[in-house]
Design a protein that fits this description.
By secondary structure, the protein is mainly alpha-helical. Helix content is about 75%, strand content about 0%. Helix 5 packs parallel to helix 7 and helix 6 packs antiparallel against helix 7. The mean pLDDT is about 85.
């Protein structure tokens, strides 16, 4: 007699339940990125606004706090990716979206002098794409709304004087990364 490779109905349901639980756990683990980057970018925006107000010559230097955040993000991603045996389609798409955003932002920073470092509105607008798309994929309305709010914040930033753009960025990050990040972290499906 050959052993049967077929699963019983109970085994199938148990396997599906385990896979869904694992996927939910991975999605909640993604809240780490929203929270990390939300706080780092919020602090950088507020720091830049404050340093501008007090007349600091190079207020943009506050953005150097993103370097440790990049290192932490890469370490976190590597650690959790190697712990997971498989990756879902969402995880692959999500990684591609966020890596694309990182490459675009890095390119903008390098060549920002060509547009007089008017980066805030542009970065807000492009941040909408992976935020909105992740919300659609996850079927998580706070991220969808966050993506739309990023677009609105980008438009508002284009209209406001340059000195107030970091404040718009801080509010946008709080609404579009931190609020959804905490909601995602505490999500109970």
């Amino acid at each position: 007699m050959e052993p049967s490779n077929e699963l019983t109905a109970n085994q199938s349901l148990e396997l599906i339940s385990r896979m869904i639980s694992e996927a939910k756990g991975r999605v909640q683990a993604n809240s780490f990125y929203y929270l990390l980057w939300g706080w780092v970018i919020l602090l950088a925006n507020l720091g830049m606004f404050t340093l501008n107000r007090v007349g600091f010559e190079r207020p943009y230097l506050v953005w150097l706090i993103t370097i440790p955040a990049w290192i932490l993000s890469l370490a976190w991603g590597f650690r959790h990716r190697s712990a997971a045996r498989t990756s879902t389609h969402f995880e692959r798409v999500s990684t591609a979206l966020w890596v694309s955003l990182g490459v675009v932002i890095f390119t903008l920073v390098i060549f920002g002098y060509q547009i007089n470092f008017q980066l805030g509105p542009i970065i807000l607008m492009i941040s909408a794409i992976p935020t909105f798309t992740s919300g659609v994929i996850l079927k998580f309305r706070p991220l969808i709304i966050g993506g739309v709010l990023f677009w609105i914040a980008g438009i508002v930033s284009f209209i406001l004087p340059r000195e107030f753009q970091p404040l718009v960025g801080a509010v946008a990050i709080a609404c579009c990364y931190l609020v959804p990040g905490y909601m995602l972290k505490n999500r109970r499906d």
